[in-house]
Amino acid sequence: MSLHLDAMRFSFMCRPPRPPSRGRRVAIVGAGIAGLTVAGYLACRGVDVVVFERLEEAGGLLLHVIPELRVSHRRVLAGIEELENAMGVEIRRRVRVCGGEAPELEESGFERETIDLRDLVQEFDAVVIATGTWRTRRLGIPGEEAEGVYTALGFLFRMKRYRLEESTEPPPIQLAGRRVAVIGGDIMALDVAMEAIYEGAREVLLLYEGTARECPVGLYAIRSLETRGVRMVELVKPVEIIVEDGRARGLELVKLNPRTREPIEGSRFSIDVDVVINASSVEPTPPVEPGYLGIEVDEQGRIMVDENHRTGNPKVFACGDVVLGPSKLGYAVRDALYTARAVDEFLG
Amino acid sequence: MARRGLYVDITLCMGCRTCEAVCEFLHGEKLINVYEPLPGIFTPITCRHCERAPCIEVCPTAALERDTDGAVIVNPRRCIGCMMCTAVCPFGVPSMSAKSKSVVKCDMCRDLRLEGLPPACAQMCPATAIVFGSIETLADKARARTAEILARIRLLRAPVRPFIPFAPR
């Protein structure tokens, strides 16, 4: 069988066709980069893999959130297709796996079927949870529920879905001619600001609680955004979203002392904006409530695992950002590979 | 056999470190390293498998050799660990391994190539910053990727959305 060279090869360890089945079955919950990497490794080891994905398509943040400029969706889709068609991985889309009162997700409701994790644990020889970080830390200020207020995750997700559809419809979130405030300084804030420029926003403000120099994306990225028309406001913190008739109309900010980073008294000021995008950090979203089937979660919401990447349940492993917290694609891949190896050894 | 090359386009690197992850997993140590000399400026450094490789020329024990694909490979039985290769490498690529007590460097995923597979980093790089292929097609492949990215930028600005939809099922 020939290789798809323009695919992201999640099964980079072996050539298709997949080796004969060892008669072991593994369920993977979540088809992001971590889940797909585990699937690719185990398929190369002759394991029967079923991946459960709540969305319409696998690919996780890689496909649904990271902008097209960074990651080609064709390459990701080709990789998913190779896993399914050449490596014998079964991907069950629009199926959500839950257990108890799981934390709420953003962009939910795509599932047609919900399965209890308990059933998977019974049916499969092992289960790997790789559900990532599908929730944004809230700003915790008044007005957050108003129309015109989005999270970076939700905004990028909806815009990318729209772009992947061949559509002449207007975008789901219209920014043309709008004044947009982006709150944050990491890569998602940067991506949102770029999108807003592409969408023809009248004004894009990047509001960050540190200085431009301290921004995680680096001064170079900030300066290049500025050449494209983004205005950065350093050392500010939002205190309230001003709402009129249920819609965001402005933002009340406070200046921060450059040394202590404490709010400066009497420094509150407001700006007129129509759209507020919260690009605070994302949080882990385990599919289960803490303690369900012995799966424990730490104070940051991350699934706790032992040195063998195993949760409190002997048949359930976990990897990727749901264990690490928001990280990088590569850290999720690394965690997934060592987890996959541990699962492989566990299967015997 | 056709000579092959591994081309890393540092301008496409987004610093996700997927290459490091797959490399470390396969080889037990990172033979490609992504540096961030300034915040947000990512520079992956790995062996370029130079056509006129200073490391091969300087090695006093002829421990560095070129395999049939053109990859520069260390023979750990011959290597005495003098690190002359590190000194003359313009990228400082060969490093001493505490584990094997010899110099280690990227071998263009020799084991994978024997299976007819590209190096792991090239297979998995999400940003398509790593290209592998015969040296005749390498530059063309690299250009094709740059062209694709330029096209994506252009399409982003287009009034209609000509992207292909999700793969039909």
In short:
The complex is a heterodimer of chains A (348) and B (169). Chain A has helices spanning 33-44, 60-64, 73-85, 117-123, 152-164, 187-198, 219-227, 321-324, 329-347, and strands at residues 25-29, 48-53, 90-93, 95-98, 113-116, 126-129, 135-136, 149-151, 179-183, 203-207, 230-233, 236-244, 247-255, 269-272, 275-278, 282-283, 316-318.
Characterize the structure shown:
The complex is a heterodimer of chains A (348) and B (169). Chain A is an alpha/beta fold and 348 residues long. Chain A is 27% helix and 22% strand. Chain A has helices at 33-44, 60-64, 73-85, 117-123, 152-164, 187-198, 219-227, 321-324, 329-347, and strands at residues 25-29, 48-53, 90-93, 95-98, 113-116, 126-129, 135-136, 149-151, 179-183, 203-207, 230-233, 236-244, 247-255, 269-272, 275-278, 282-283, 316-318. In chain A, strands 3-2-1-6-17 form a five-stranded parallel sheet, with helices on both faces. In chain A, β1 (25-29), α1 (33-44) and β2 form a beta-alpha-beta unit. In chain A, α1 (33-44) runs parallel beside α9 and α5 packs across α6 (187-198). The longest helix of chain A has 19 residues, at 329-347. Chain A is globular. Chain B has 169 residues and is of the alpha+beta class. Chain B has a domain at 47-105: Alpha-Beta Plaits (2-Layer Sandwich). Chain B contains six helices and eight strands. Chain B has helices at 18-27, 54-58, 84-88, 110-114, 120-124, 135-156; strands at residues 4-8, 33-38, 41-45, 64-66, 72-74, 95-96, 103-104, 130-134. Chain B has a two-stranded antiparallel ribbon. The model of chain B is unreliable at 160-169 (pLDDT under 50). Chains A and B meet through α3, α5, α7 and α9 of A and α1, α5 and α6 of B.
